Amino acid sequence: MAKPLVFPVLAQFVSATAGRNMTRTAYVAVTLGVAMMTVLTIGPAYDAVAHWVDAVLWLCLAYFVFEWLVRLRHMRQRGRFWFYQLSGAGLVDAAGALAVPLALLAGVQPKTAWLLAILWVLKVVPGIPGLRQLRRVLVQESGPLISVLVIFLMVVFLASVAEYFLEHDVQPQTFGSVPAALWWAVVTLTTTGYGDVVPITPLGRIVAAMVMISGLGVFGLWTGILATGFAAETRRDNFLKTWETVSNVPFFANLGPAAIADVTQMLRTVDLPPRTTIIRKGTSGDCMYFVAAGEVAVDLPGRKVLLGEGHFFGEMALLGNTMRGADVITTKVARLLVLDLVDFRLLMARHPELAETIDAEARRRQLENQ
């Protein structure tokens, strides 16, 4: 009697596991596995609950082996077996499934072998959107980042040679060779300043001061490059999302790509939960709204009008009557596109046909509301 219930659930679980995205079970397995691996390194705590810790670790390992085998089978069926095996996700899955067993088979002590369970943390990486964005930024800004890295290495080696020349006679143990001076150069350039190696000659201290100032400049450049790259990537993502939303609004269906790009740069996207008041009657208005998804209710005298995807409201505030004439409330989760007064006038000047459409719709609504 249990088969009709068990097998569909198992099939659904296997289907979810075959995908590249992390499932909730995988997140739980990673959390428990890393937690138990940590307890394993605490002698008294592990001795008290050794059987439970071992059981949880083996259970997590069994899950990751099962997950890896399911994905191998899934990719083989799709003809992408080697692509998956050589991809980053495939290598991480293989390491998570095989690292601990191979270490145990090689004769490594169990407590040491289970330290490789830390590799399970890498399985979380593909599911973090911010890390994918970071990867794109690093690829796009690789040129400037590598240029700053070259500057960093040049300063390190120049400073090492300079300090060796100035300090090796007075501090032969710490500055007795260029490789020995490299430790001081890296610590100083990164402004860490551990203090275990310090120049004592006047010229050596001057070089140290210049290296510290150079370190601030180098890391400032890296920070600026990454910040600019992230800002550009965020604007690009927002533009693409807004473009997709605008192109799906029937009101803009007749606009060409250039006009849609123009509109996309002017509109703001707002996501609102149900029963949120967007406009209150009698307040001053300086923007209009387009319903990209969801639904809103306009509270008119004696009745309510529902506006769905493709409709717009609040246009009267931009056509001369700045006082809001009705309350507008979301009835379900809604995504709205907001057009401010200044952008509205600029958009109407660039696209007269859009102005005519809005004006005709506004007159129609005025007649309906009389």
Describe the main β-sheet briefly. Answer: 4 strands, antiparallel
Q: Please give the share of residues in helix.
A: 55-70%
What is the number of independent domains? 3
Number of strands: 8
Strand content: 5-15%
Quick check: average pLDDT? 81
Class by SSE composition: alpha+beta
Compute the CA-based radius of gyration: 32 Å
Q: Alpha-carbon distance between the termini?
A: 66 Å
Features:
single chain; 370 residues; alpha+beta; Helix Hairpins; Jelly Rolls; 3 domains; 4-stranded antiparallel sheet; disordered N terminus
Topology record:
Elements: H1 3-18, H2 24-40, H3 43-48, H4 50-77, H5 81-86, H6 88-105, H7 110-113, H8 129-140, H9 142-167, H10 178-189, H11 202-247, H12 257-266, E1 268-272, E2 277-279, E3 287-293, E4 296-300, E5 303-307, E6 312-313, E7 327-330, E8 334-340, H13 341-350, H14 352-369
Antiparallel strand pairs: 1-8, 2-7, 3-6, 3-8, 4-5, 4-7
Helix pairs in contact: 2-4, 4-6, 8-11, 9-10, 9-11, 11-12, 13-14
Describe this entry's structure for a reader:
By secondary structure, this protein is α+β, with helices and mostly antiparallel strands. It has three domains: 3-127; 142-233, Helix Hairpins (Orthogonal Bundle); 259-369, Jelly Rolls (Sandwich). The protein is built from 14 helices and eight strands. It has helices at 3-18, 24-40, 43-48, 50-77, 81-86, 88-105, 110-113, 129-140, 142-167, 178-189, 202-247, 257-266, 341-350, 352-369; strands at residues 268-272, 277-279, 287-293, 296-300, 303-307, 312-313, 327-330, 334-340. It has a four-stranded antiparallel beta sheet. A four-stranded antiparallel beta sheet has the order 2-7-4-5, with no helix packed on it. Strand 4 (296-300) and strand 5 form a beta hairpin. Helix 13 (341-350) crosses helix 14 (352-369). The longest helix has 46 residues, at 202-247. Pfam families: cNMP_binding, Ion_trans. Its main location: membrane. This is Ion transporter.
